[in-house]
Every structure is written in C-alpha cells, then in structure tokens.
Write a structure and sequence with these properties.
By secondary structure, the protein is an alpha+beta fold. It has helices spanning 2-10, 116-123, 133-143, 150-160, 220-226, and strands at residues 23-31, 34-37, 47-53, 59-67, 73-77, 99-102, 108-112, 129-131, 164-169, 172-177, 182-188. It is elongated and about 55 Å long.
Length: 227
C-alpha cells in the first residue's frame, strides 16, 4: 500500500506557473459599468479591486471588477466591497487614474480535493494561505446547501476573503475565481483517485446539522465537473 501511495503522489507534476500572479494596473477610461485598464490582466476572468485615494491620502477599495477581454476591458461587479453593519456602503464612482489590483487575495486559496493525499500534495507545493475545506463545510451547513456551487462559493469567498478555489477534477486541477465565476488556471495532474470523498475531502465525519447529518451519497467527480 505504501508503494502504491508513493507512486500516486509521484505522478503529480510540480505546479509551476499554475497560480496567476497578483498584478497592478489603473483605470484609463470609464463608461457606465465598463472600464478599461491601462495594463490588462494576464488572464481573462481574473477579478480585482479598484482602489481610490481620497484627498486626505486615504486609499480605499471601492469596487470589484472582472476582466472581460485581452485588451483590458473589465466590468464592475455589483457587490458591497466592505461588509460591516456599522459602516456605510461606499458610494464613490470608479474614476480614471484609480489604482487597480488584479488577482486580489489570490494567495488565499480553498482546495476541494477527493482525498487527504491529493489535498496534502497540492498544499505542500506552494506557500499560500490555504483555506481549509472544513470551514467551507461548516459554511454549507449554515446555508443549507447540499453541494458546492459557483453561487455558494462566491458567497463564501466574499465572507472569508478567499481569492481562488482549486478544484480537483478527474486527472486535472482547475483554478476558479469565485468572484468572477471564471476558470483562470488549469493543470494536468495525471492519475487521481478512482473515487473521491463525498462531497469533498474534509476532516468531519458527521455534523449534527444541515445536510451532512443525512445519509446522502453522491459522486465527487460529477459534482466538481458541474461547478
């Protein structure tokens, strides 16, 4: 069994260049909910934030954006950038000259993997802030959702400062930007487990609330292909 596990892990390639870098740009034009960047992000679908500096030299994030074309076209995403009951919503409009950070929080990564070995192999290859799937599992119990979806991943990412979701599919890993809902990276893995833990690898065997308390079964890979 030890030899089989060693061969399985050795089949994974190094993830060189898998994760998009965080980049800086600026707003060169604004037209309604559309903006143009002075320097395009390296990958379409990457999300980012606009940072406006007020007269008192106070920089503040004002908008989320997602790039839609290789020419640096991007759209403003309709969501509150700061969530706090005691703070007012930011009303500042996007302005020419505002700083843009692409790949904001891309070092904060949630991994959805079929088993502990695959999870460990991926997380050991990079120095990232790994958001453990246990936290996402607890989030799902509160939401009452039965499976991961783009919608609940976006909500989870917004609440817990997650920049990317690494999803292991059959012999492939993809990077989902949960804010834009677009795939921004893909890597061939080689052999992956024939079956995965349902709905994804986590440490909990049972949670006494929500759908985890049921006997529901399913196919890990089918779920991950549907995201």
């Amino acid at each position: 069994m030890h030899k089989i596990a060693t061969l399985f892990l050795a089949a994974f390639p190094l993830f060189g260049g898998f994760f998009p870098p965080t980049v800086q740009s600026a707003v060169s034009s604004v037209s309604g909910k559309q903006i143009t960047l002075t320097k395009p992000f390296p990958i379409n679908g990457m999300s980012g934030v606009i940072v406006h500096t007020y007269n008192d030299s106070l920089p503040t994030m004002t908008h989320r954006i997602a790039q839609t074309s290789t020419e640096g076209k991007a759209k403003l995403i309709e969501t509150d950038i700061i969530h706090h009951e005691s703070l007012p919503n930011i009303k500042t409009e996007a302005l020419v000259g505002d700083k843009v950070v692409g790949g904001y929080l891309y070092d904060n990564v949630l991994v959805l993997a079929p088993d502990a070995q695959t999870y460990s192999k991926i997380t050991s290859q990079y120095e990232k802030t790994w958001i453990h799937p246990d936290l996402y599992a607890l989030f799902l119990t509160k939401e009452g959702d039965s499976v991961p979806t783009k919608e609940n991943l976006a909500k989870f990412a917004d609440m817990y400062q997650v920049g990317l979701v690494c999803i292991v599919r059959k012999e492939t890993a993809i990077l989902l930007d949960p804010i834009s809902g677009k795939i921004v990276g893909q890597q061939t893995l080689g052999q992956t487990p024939a079956q995965g833990q349902f709905p994804f690898f986590m440490h909990f065997e049972e949670i006494k609330s929500g759908w985890f308390d049921s006997e529901e079964k399913g196919n890990y890979y089918q779920i991950m292909e549907s995201i």
